[in-house]
Write a structure and sequence with these properties.
- This protein is α/β, with parallel strands linked by helices.
- A 6-stranded mixed beta sheet has the order 1-2-3-5-7-10, sandwiched between helices. Strands 4-6-8-9 form a 4-stranded mixed beta sheet.
- It starts with 5 loop residues before the first helix and ends in a 10-residue tail after the last helix.
């Protein structure tokens, strides 16, 4: 059997203004390799600058797993080192986290287009944190979320300890991270991790409908709204009010804002271009 290419392991297409990014290693429970991770980061960065992309969907192949975390079995690049150097020098682990899992989550948070997570199955470890970083989350009714790190004797990475308590509160976040228990999708919905739960065979259709609505919206206004809401988690009132005025200034100079006002005055539906 020939080894699949990176483009086969991460499927990518742009359709009707929506960039679809699909993890495609169901035989490995969609555990993500460092090559896949870096490719997804590049695709998200490209989506920000692409006029043809107005929304992004991240999903995975198969009906059982969305992403079960980093692929610990995948070969890692070997760094040249002196013969007497330690296998893992001080600072090596933290550097890998910074340029790896954290950079992936940041690419989702900082993407200038809205990102929908279409969670088709188990989301564990960094897979769960990819979902937490998405702007909207639609999940199949068979999905579940697992803060799996404690099961391996390690601490959460990929921004999980930053994102999860901001979504569900401190105490519940500690419970999930201390015990590493499975979180069924219905409970994830109740806690606010998931926006909508659908049957598995309706996941792609529902994600396409939501992404289509976003792709037909005022892209820059949505981008600035995303920026405002994300910054509000770490801002005081004065800072939030300043950010709001700054974002409104930028939005009012877009063609879409002019179209929105004109459509209101003329009593018609607006036709947004995305800029």
């Amino acid at each position: 059997m020939t080894e699949s290419t990176l483009e086969e392991q991460v499927l990518h297409r742009i359709e009707d203004g929506v960039a679809w990014i699909t993890l495609n290693r169901p035989e490995a429970a969609n555990a993500i390799t460092y090559q896949q991770r870096n490719h997804v980061i590049d695709l998200l960065n490209a989506a920000s600058a692409d006029y043809h992309v107005r929304a992004v969907v991240i999903t995975a192949a198969g009906a059982k797993h969305f992403c079960t975390g980093a692929d610990l079995r995948a070969a890692q690049p070997e760094l040249a080192r002196p013969d007497d150097a330690p296998d893992i020098p001080s600072g090596h682990v933290s550097r890998n986290i910074r340029i790896g899992a954290q950079r992936l989550v940041a690419a989702i948070l900082d993407c200038e287009k809205p990102v929908i997570g279409a969670i088709n199955g188990t989301a564990a470890g960094i897979g769960a944190h990819i979902a937490l970083a998405c702007d909207l989350v639609i999940a199949a009714d068979t999905a579940k979320f697992i803060e799996v790190f404690v099961r391996r004797g390690i601490v959460p990475d990929g921004g999980g300890a930053y994102l999860l308590p901001r979504i569900i509160g401190l105490q519940k976040a500690k419970e999930l991270m201390f015990f590493g228990d499975d979180l069924p999708v219905d409970e994830a919905y109740r806690l606010g991790i998931v926006n909508k739960v659908v049957p598995g065979d309706e996941l792609v259709k529902t994600a396409a409908e939501w992404a289509g609505r976003l792709a037909n919206g005022p892209t820059r206004a949505i981008s600035l709204t995303k920026w405002l809401v994300n910054r509000s988690l770490d801002s005081d009132r004065a800072g939030a009010f300043y950010d709001e005025s700054y974002a409104q200034e930028l939005a009012m100079h877009t063609l879409d804002a002019n179209e929105g006002v004109q459509a209101f005055v003329q009593r018609r539906d607006p036709t947004y271009k995305g800029w």
